[in-house]
Amino acid sequence: MQKIMLIMVMILVTLSCKPTGKKISDNKESILTKSGVNQSNKNYNWCDKLILNYIKKSDNKLIKSSRKDTSIRIEWMLDRVENSDTSKYFIFHIGHNVVDKGDINLRVVTDDWVYIDSLSRKFYVYDLPHDSLIEWKK
Q1: Whether the model pTM is above 0.85
Q2: What is the 3-state secondary structure of the chain?
Q3: Please, is 33 exposed, middle or buried when counting C-beta atoms within 10 Å of its C-beta (0-12, 13-18, 19+)?
Q4: 51 φ, ψ to 5°?
């Protein structure tokens, strides 16, 4: 019985680690998946919509430069869920992939960390130097 439970847990962990890579473009309202298929009519969940809105309107210099370079695919991934006394926060990593010449040394560059309050659906940007959350309103 323990072996079956261990296998089930490993399968769930593997499935939950799947990133949701999406690309946005300043001059188009379309959302592109990794395959490049236009998915503008697809229904995204409310977290994805908040993140897309943030990426489109962000003042973050790294995100702005990633938006301008059409060869860069901005992606986000749910990093973890953090419970506090008053709420549950979804913590997302926003960034893009970088690879050296010859397709070696693939790595992810972090552009920003964002927190989304699951109860109030408020959007927060993590301020690293001050180790605090700043509510983002736009």
Answers
A1: no
A2: CHHHHHHHHHHHHHHHCCCEECEEECCEEEEECCCCCECCCCCCCHHHHHHHHHHHHCCCHHHHHHHHCCCCCCEEEEEEEEECCCCEEEEEEEEEEEEECCCEEEEEEEEEEEEEECCCCCEEEEECCCCEEEECCC
A3: middle
A4: -65, -40
Question: Encoding tokens for residue 108?
Answer: 């992810």
pLDDT in tens, 60-94: 898 888 888 877 888 898 999 999 888 899 999 99
Contacts of 125 (CB under 8 A, 6+ apart): 54, 60, 112, 113, 114, 115, 133, 134, 136
